[in-house]
Amino acid sequence: MDNWVIALIKVVFIWTWTLLIATLMTWVERRGSAMMQDRLGPNRAGPFGLFQPLADGIKLFTKEDIIPEKAHKILFSLGPILFALPAFSAYAVIPFGDKLIVNGKEIILQVADVNVGFLYVVALGAMAVYGIVLGGWGSNNKYSILGGLRSTAQLISYEVPFGLSLLAVVLVYGTFSLREISLVQQGTFLGFLPNWGIFKQPLGFILFIVTAYAEANRVPFDLPEAESEIVAGYHTEYGSMRLGLYLFGEYVNMYTLAALMVTLYFGAWHLPYIDMSKFLGPVSYGIASFLVFFLKTAFFLWLFVWVRWTVPRFRYDQVMGLGWKALIPLALVNLFITALCIQLTV
Amino acid sequence: MDIYFIIFAIMALGGALFTITAKDALPSALGLLTVFIALSALYLHLHAPLIAIFQVTIYAGAILVLVVFVIMLLMTPDEKLEAAQKNMAYRIMGAVLGAYLTALTVVGVKGISELISANELPEGFGHPGLLGDLFFKKYLLHFEMASVLLLVALIAGIYLAKKRI
Questions:
Q1: Residue of chain A nearest B73, judged by CA positions
Q2: How far is CA A23 from CA A80, A119, A156, A293, in A?
Q3: Which residue among A117, A278, A310, B6 sits deepest, i.e. has the most Cβ atoms within 10 Å of its Cβ?
Q4: Does A3 map to a domain?
């Protein structure tokens, strides 16, 4: 019974937390872009415009919900839901801290530590494309279909290097469980570097971050919604909260991917050279590990925004060429070198 | 018979039926997606989480996406899938193959049901490590043969796609 309550609290917590972060990210994105373009951005609602996401939410909720006459009704309304659902469920297997000990009971800061955790994230990431495809096809609009088409092609091309770079991580750590991977990143590597995944998989991390941007449909890979070519791509016909779900799902995806990067390559909740569990109490250690993990994730979330407003969008053939001619061979080479190193050292 | 199995079996069969009867191409593909997801849930129920995840990642996440890509490339939303195959020879061939497949399934299922004896699972059943062990030790020959088959298909694909090599 007790375990059920704890599990429920964890699920509710991570849902609210993810929602909060995604909401905040819309504000960060707008203020960040304004900062980079030397303007102010939304600064009217609340301090620093912090209530802007709230105002946006109210606006989207109260807008008239329009379904185009020629659209395929069921597919059209199913699209945003199918896009947002996998995004919201993907975080379940990623840790958000080490552990919290309350009344002698150990609470692991992760919703579910399953031994195929890793693949679960990959599988759900691939599911998001159906939301885009349904929206594009159901809208019965040329631009929407082009957006959906681009999304499928992009997913097929980038899923392979994404999976291969993750596979190299599995080779290094010998487990699929994200918690176990986080736990072994304590201490130092080669005597002076923090024992983080990035130092064991430098090429793997570059491949992962590039493909992650493609998976999240972010600039420079936001071809499914390239507004200079195909209006708004798959969500051209969408309005009100249906559009809101698409936009929101994107931020939730970003959060999941950023957390995955931290877990795999940046030592999860470990600080470099310092073992927090040695001099912090059980409760404060739990909170500290959560905060460290979140701060690292926040940096990668900011990186998403940073890149978006710095780098121009690739041309479509460049995206495909990069995926097939550069990333896949590199990912294979990386996998081969990793396997060789492990074979020689173990 | 447990309720979990019945729910997902019905879901899989319903999805399959919808796939072959749907008049629109994309909803038909979504029917197939339902089948894959229901099968994945059944694998999970059989304590095979790795296979369940692969079912979603590879079938739903890669193969079906390719199918959807082709549908979106070649068709428009207004296009309807017209009546079944007119060619009589194809239809007979389909019937023969279908009957063969059904017979094969029946024989296979009967064989499995004779094999099943205990309800207890061995230690670490369904764990990725154990599966890898089986693949690279006990069933190495089968595994290598499957990869050779895939290689042949790959080379054939390149040959067909390129006019001159």
A1: A149
A2: 17, 27, 29, 19
A3: A117
A4: no
Mean pLDDT over A97-124 rounds to 74
CATH number at residue B90: 1.20.120.1200
Identity of the amino acid at A139: S
Domain that holds residue B154: 127-165
pLDDT of B99: 93
- Closest residue to B69, CB basis, from A75, A149, A163: A149
Q: How confident is the model at residue A22 (pLDDT cuts 50, 70, 90)?
A: confident
Please indicate, yes or no, whether residues B27 and B98 belong to a single structural domain of this protein: yes
Tokens of A264: 């795999």
Q: Residues of chain B with pLDDT > 70: what percent?
A: 88
Q: Residues A270, A272, A274, A275: is their CA dihedral positive or negative?
A: positive
Instruction: Say yes or no: B92 and B165 in one domain.
Output: no
B65-93 residue pLDDT tens = 888 888 888 877 777 777 666 778 888 89
Q: Residue B68: which of A283, A124, A155 has the closest Cα?
A: A155
Enumerate the β-bridge partners of residue A99.
Answer: A108
Tell me, yes or no, whether B41 and B81 share the same domain.
yes
CA-closest candidate to residue A36, choices A344, A334, A311, A313: A311
Q: What is the pLDDT of residue B114?
A: 66
Q: Give residue A283's pLDDT.
A: 75
Taking residues A293-303, report their average pLDDT: 88
User: Hunting for tokens 């197939």 — which residue is that?
Assistant: B32
ipTM of this complex: 0.76
Tell me which chain B residues have a C-beta less than 8 angstroms from the C-beta of A79.
none
Confirm whether B1 is domain-assigned. Answer: yes
Confidence check: pLDDT of B117 > 60:
no
Residue A43 lies in a domain: no
Q: Evaluate whether residue A289 is within a structural domain.
A: yes
**A180: domain range?**
70-345
* pLDDT of res. B96: 93
What pLDDT is attached to residue B149? 94
Are B3 and B70 in the same domain?
yes
Whether the model pTM is above 0.95: no
Q: Are residues B148 and B105 in the same domain?
A: no
> Per the structure, how many domains does chain B have?
2
Question: Which residues in B lie closer than 8 A to residue A122 (C-beta atoms)?
Answer: 57, 61
Check whether residue B9 and residue B63 sit in a common domain: yes
Asked whether residue B119 is assigned to any structural domain, the reply reads: no
Half-sphere exposure of B21 (CA within 13 A, CB side): 6
Q: What's the CA gap between A6 and A159, in Å, rounded? A: 35
Judged by CB atoms closer than 8 Å, whether chains meet at B27 and A116 is answered as no
| Tally of domains in chain A | 1
Residue B121 inside a domain? The answer is: no
Question: Is pLDDT at B105 greater than 70 in this prediction?
Answer: yes
Say if residue A104's pLDDT is above 70.
Answer: no
Does a structural domain hold residue B122? no
Shared domain for B104 and B131, answered yes or no, is: no
> How far does the CA of residue B59 sit from the closest CA of chain A (Å)?
10
Name beta bridge partners: A106.
Answer: A101
